[in-house]
Amino acid sequence: MPQAQAPFADMLGGEFGEAEDLDSAMAALQGAMSAEDNQFAPPPPPPPLGATAARSGNVIMNIPVEVQIVLGSTEMSVSELMALGKGSTVALDRRIGEPVDVMVNGRHVARGEITVLDHDPSRFGIRLTEIVSAQPSA
To answer: Which residue range or ranges hold the Flagellar motor switch protein FliN-like C-terminal domain (predicted)?
Structure first.
């Protein structure tokens, strides 16, 4: 029976036929493959855990949130609402001087008092007087 030459025989430096030991052919092939693998540099190590956390922290700190200052509220019927017009006054459930609520994305987070801004007396702001503690979810 004639010996067949494997397509990778030149790469491995010889011929392999039916009489050749399959183990020696596999060992030669593995040696050639590992020689090729050694030509490439190992992958760079992963970044330190702190660097990844800092990067994700910066992303979180740049997320916009909606902040609302709630002066008060009231309830009225649809007919009362429809009767409102220019110059109408709506009475709120809070008195002058009572703290206002600070809401962040719809969640009550603080209370404060209305104040005039020192650097711009035509504008007002809120001086925080109380941070509302997180309530456990039910």
So the answer is: 60-132
